[in-house]
């Protein structure tokens, strides 16, 4: 990857993150779509890309796909419980398939990919991993041997910057979600204080009891009470 190319991608990601923060974007999947399209432009040989999100319960979903094949390939992976993107997400940091027809790993996945798609080369990078969910950034090409060693190095750089940008947006989303929850709980407390002539601590304890008895998150209970009050209930 040339210095100019690397700088161009970093600047594009930085501009994207600044724009998203200025706009207070809340749709993380839309952010991933922007990041994936940006990364695809900088990887020679790649014809499409997508992000695989895998959960510990076996569910697989695709976000940020640049066309229909990433989602179809993830569906094949979920169907057979195997595949390069799942391996990248859960087990290894980098996975490369040079030719689906010659690949010995993930035989069911490769057969499905050959039968249902024109994709023959795959390059997958782990983006993040925790105890419940993992993600991988994946690049695809219809030609065999589309990704050489330089592509792997470049893809790793792209994946690293994508993961960092995603992490920033996720933290911002979590922070704004926490603020929103605090605000709605405050509204519910004030409503209970006025209606039942109790103090703030007693109102909060009442919300906690309602949350525990209904097995519902505290913020959700608060929102239900506020919405009921607004409806006149």
TrEMBL record:
<keyword id="KW-0418">Kinase</keyword>
<keyword id="KW-0804">Transcription</keyword>
<keyword id="KW-0805">Transcription regulation</keyword>
<keyword id="KW-0808">Transferase</keyword>
<dbReference type="InterPro" id="IPR005561">
    <property type="entry name" value="ANTAR"/>
</dbReference>
<dbReference type="Pfam" id="PF13185">
    <property type="entry name" value="GAF_2"/>
</dbReference>
<dbReference type="InterPro" id="IPR036388">
    <property type="entry name" value="WH-like_DNA-bd_sf"/>
</dbReference>
<dbReference type="InterPro" id="IPR012074">
    <property type="entry name" value="GAF_ANTAR"/>
</dbReference>
<protein>
    <recommendedName>
        <fullName>ANTAR domain-containing protein</fullName>
    </recommendedName>
</protein>
<feature type="domain" description="ANTAR">
    <location>
        <begin position="165"/>
        <end position="226"/>
    </location>
</feature>
<dbReference type="InterPro" id="IPR003018">
    <property type="entry name" value="GAF"/>
</dbReference>
<dbReference type="InterPro" id="IPR011006">
    <property type="entry name" value="CheY-like_superfamily"/>
</dbReference>
<dbReference type="Pfam" id="PF03861">
    <property type="entry name" value="ANTAR"/>
</dbReference>
<dbReference type="InterPro" id="IPR029016">
    <property type="entry name" value="GAF-like_dom_sf"/>
</dbReference>
